[in-house]
Amino acid sequence: xxxxxxxxxxxxxxxxxxxxxxxxxxxxxxxxxxxxxxxxxxxxxxxxxxxxxxxxxxxxxxxxxxxxxxxxxxxxxxxxxxxxxxxxxxxxxxxxxxxxxxxxxxxxxxxxxxxxxxxxxxxxxxxxxxxxxxxxxxxxxxxxxxxxxxxxxxxxxxxxxxxxxxxxxxxxxxxxxxxxxxxxxxxxxxxxxxxxxxxxxxxxxxxxxxxxxxxxxxxxxxxxxxxxxxxxxxxxxxxxxxxxxxxxxxxxxxx
Length: 255
Description:
single chain; alpha/beta; Rossmann fold; 7 strands
């Protein structure tokens, strides 16, 4: 694949502090995480993952598979930080699925030091084949996802809505390349977060992620719906900051 960078660091020295790698939900770009850098301050390096076809990568060609996305992101992470540098991964919805696969690949291919993985508003990998199929075959599901953002006519005119639905549709097709039939448990802390009022990924599915944790697992619920941590990032940041700090302290501070 060609095009622009897959990573957007917002810290002036991203390899001098623990990295928080953030993956947005389907149909969205990573610029929404820019404010997280301000919220977490200089002791955490927030790095967004930018898929093609949105924001600064609008003209870049669509990836053909989840595996291609994972390989491209892992290659750029390897250029950004050494393998012994602590990386904490946060992914939302489809971004959480990508985050899980990126964590697997970082561990398997370069022994990356992972401070943990947080999956938000996401069904476990083994359920993604059915979820991706419904998104592709039932266009109303895409509208439901977009409507969950709570954007009114003042925020989203019809032309913009059509553009966002198109990006959502392309991400839904991308998700169909994922089988999710090889369960691999992560040997780092794993947390599954959800919104108490999420009717797209109900809280009851979150404990299913326990099977993907070889070490510690925790499920947490937050006020809000499917986009709880994007609508109100403060509760998420209050947890992610200490998690990143803990990752840096596990094997000694970064020098």
